Amino acid sequence: MGTFTKIAKPSAHHDEKTWAGSASTTTVSGLGFQPDWIHIANRSSTTDHNVVDTVRGIDKNIYFDETDGQDTASRVASITSDGCTLTGGEANTNTASAGFIGHFWKLAGSTTTNDASATGVGTIDSSYRANTDAGLSVVTWTGTGANGTIAHGLGKIPDMIICKDIEQDGYNWEMYMHTGNRSGQTDIGHGTLNETDAQMPFNPGVAAHDDHEYWNDTAPTSTVFSIGTKNNVNQSGIDQMAICIANTNGSVRVGSYCGNGNAYGPFIFTGFKPRCVWICRFDTTGENTSWKTSTTIALGPNNAAQTGSGSNHGNKIEHNIKLDSGDNGGAEVASQDHMDFFAQGFACRTTDGKSNGDGNFYWYVAWAKEPSVSTNKVLGTAF
Question: pTM of the entire structure?
Fold first, then answer.
């Protein structure tokens, strides 16, 4: 039986909505929670992926597919206890003749300010909102230029940390990944969310894989993560942000797998039925290393439902959106990297090197739709 979870309803912490764009104000509702981290993508054209959160302020826009710093614009005009209101005529979030998808996450109801010298947690002051039940936090701090540690508020060790200089242009989204074991070595790696550069598992003693300038050669703990002296994550006097994700039963799973090159790829156990999966190849460079997001709700042009033809159990996901800057975010793409979502995981249904090349290695992040084992330790709604 699957892994026990105290999260009976993952959609109370993370959910997705689609809408038809408009030149007028649009209300997105039905979440059942206040969204504190919002990621919106235009499914019809190649505009930037718009990201806002309640730690920085919802008028501060940053872009998953770009190196730009944040700008100030009220594209997300307001948030409510059930969704948000979007300004009309905005190409990234809400404009006529375009379809959009929004990914919404719940965090804490208020922002915690950590005075490191007073609390003794970390060495650099930070602000954060954390959802400890779901394994997610958003953190901000001002760089010092010196090795340091930052409170993240999760109460557990993050398995993925995505950092960004939010004040200046020209800096990538830098990633720390800890995804278990591969061929006898631990997959702790450094990569970028928005580029097609090789994502590098750490290999002590190999200069190209030594990312001490980013993470100070120090693994995160249940209270803090470490940063080095690299400007991308810690330039003195410059504002930075991080998204921290920790493996949490029934909510989110960060991991890695090896492709088999077959039309029926390896089954990846998550312990829940996924709502959304991000995948990135990390052993090469070029287009195949783009991060891609596949979801049960981005189901085809004009928000039409997929039929799942040719797949097991009608769960075939046939559309995805890239996150790399080469595609300027990328509109939704059909007939690539087909995937099946099952009650306890997912499998790639393609021989394409982007997600299932023979002997190729991939990182993934899976967000839950339905638990396989619910709070009373019986089969959950995924079955």
Answer: 0.87
